[in-house]
Amino acid sequence: xxxxxxxxxxxxxxxxxxxxxxxxxxxxxxxxxxxxxxxxxxxxxxxxxxxxxxxxxxxxxxxxxxxxxxxxxxxxxxxxxxxxxxxxxxxxxxxxxxxxxxxxxxxxxxxxxxxxxxxxxxxxxxxxxxxxxxxxxxxxxxxxxxxxxxxxxxxxxxxxxxxxxxxxxxxxxxxxxxxxxxxxxxxxxxxxxxxxxxxxxxxxxxxxxxxxxxxxxxxxxxxxxxxxxxxxxxxxxxxxxxxxxxxxxxxxxxxxxxxxxxxxxxxxxxxxxxxxxxxxxxxxxxxxxxxxxxxxxxxxxxxxxxxxxxxxxxxxxxxxxxxx
Amino acid sequence: xxxxxxxxxxxxxxxxxxxxxxxxxxxxxxxxxxxxxxxxxxxxxxxxxxxxxxxxxxxxxxxxxxxxxxxxxxxxxxxxxxxxxxxxxxxxxxxxxxxxxxxxxxxxxxxxxxxxxxxxxxxxxxxxxxxxxxxxxxxxxxxxxxxxxxxxxxxxxxxxxxxxxxxxxxxxxxxxxxxxxxxxxxxxxxxxxxxxxxxxxxxxxxxxxxxxxxxxxxxxxxxxxxxxxxxxxxxxxxxxxxxxxxxxxxxxxxxxxxxxxxxxxxxxxxxxxxxxxxxxxxxxxxxxxxxxxxxxxxxxxxxxxxxxxxxxxxxxxxxxxxxx
Lengths: 324, 324
Hints:
Two copies of one chain form a homodimer. The two termini of chain A are 33 Å apart. The first copy, chain A, has two domains: 3-146, CATH 3.30.1330.10; 153-311, Phosphoribosyl-aminoimidazole Synthetase, Chain A, domain 2. Chain A contains eight helices and 16 strands. Chain A is an alpha+beta fold. The first copy, chain A, is globular and about 60 Å long. Chain A has helices spanning 3-18, 65-81, 102-118, 170-181, 185-190, 197-205, 219-230, 259-264; strands at residues 26-28, 35-37, 43-53, 86-96, 122-130, 136-146, 161-165, 211-214, 233-237, 245-248, 253-256, 271-275, 282-283, 286-295, 300-303, 309-311. At the A-B interface, β2, β3, α2, β4 and β5 of A face β2, β3, α2, β4 and β5 of B. β2 of chain A pairs antiparallel with β3 of chain B, so a sheet runs across the interface.
């Protein structure tokens, strides 16, 4: 076995064993042909996989290794949140080139295991490999949900209100700043999206959401997914969309990020959901904002501040976060 | 979204939907934030991930796309087999460079879905990404096993017999031939390892195996895993090890592959298991061979044809199948 890979495996095993295991669901973790998991009785299993590739999803000169691994695991946890599920275990396939410093891998694992601990899940397995060029991390998160209770994208009904958690556009604005000035590195470093697991579970327990998705590709694209799967249309109110805030100019005045970042920027990891019932302003400490309504007519529309309505195209993801 | 990735996602969705879904375990497949799976009552979940990287695990000029994807999925199915489990669903994370022909991806998916169909599982989800350089495929296979019945690596007892399924060394011999002559391509093309799922299930149902592992790294390395996890040693009989056969020389005489290929060659995907009971010569149509005994003293030994016993070092994997 190549030295790097041997070291990598040892490091992952050591880190994973040292990390707290507070879930009873993992019966057998790292060290056998498969992990063995035991889910709560009457529950179904949720599975999500998310692949992160160097220079496609992250850059080593822009992102700290902790930020990279937190983002990897956040993507998976956020998918579990979007079903109203309970995360149970994570799996990591990690391929690294021979010249990757072991310190980088150490910090990557620290970030991953730190976030796993916050959500009381363990790293239960995975795979390692030498990569000819560039780092690749594929994360699988397994979750559970009471039988038949997963919140799908396909349940939105005409007349439902459309809601989002938190603020949108932070990540896209940070990437745009990096592109322009190469000085925004600390924004990426400190940006720590919070997977909205508790909000998703609240909505599921109280039967409040008719459809739900997490905002990973960007609001316009993710809303289109709900519309397509539910065979409905949507109308958004531009003024209502909660925008992240950033400091700008020499005097570091705090402003809302541009509307386009909130509409089309990806990597928000907030929840977008629809409901026939009014929703509290805050759930599990997270602000909830109504941003529009589900409509019968296909397609999406956006009502601007001046009251004019225009067609909203799905433009998420490709513009901002891809092809760093 | 970049054109290649859009096409890739469309292709995977189309292929996955077209493929037979004969398992009731997948409640919601591709097209939501997570897949939803329902396991049989009283069962535990098995999870395995296997990462395959171009020029580390396969080469496009040596392996057909079908051979690459079959090998990817075989690795996962073989891990499920090694626990005595029942495969339920597969997930694929696929990253491809922009210059990868769509035809290659088509054939890759054909191979994957063909093997999935043989084992009555569906492709229930995954992720796609653009890769700056080289193809990367990470496969997750989910399986199930009756609660508490998974066959682990840690159960081997002093005095147990050691068995393997099938023949060993075919893949390592083929790779060696490719290295020497670059003429053995068809061997790689036609080599179709069969995950021993039915054998694993038989052994589990009849409570016959005390420990089990699949031969992916090579006999010497995988036997060492059993010894370490079970805190025992092992003695193998060189003459008893079933070697694959290959045709050699101008007259294409059929010979056993070299003992070293059977001892240390990886990618066999046969099962290695220990048992206190005698085992039938054939299970589910697959030949079973006793190759040694579990010993109290730590370490592994090999008794040669001349009756002499020497120390057996774990040398699997690194010599033959890595760093193509």
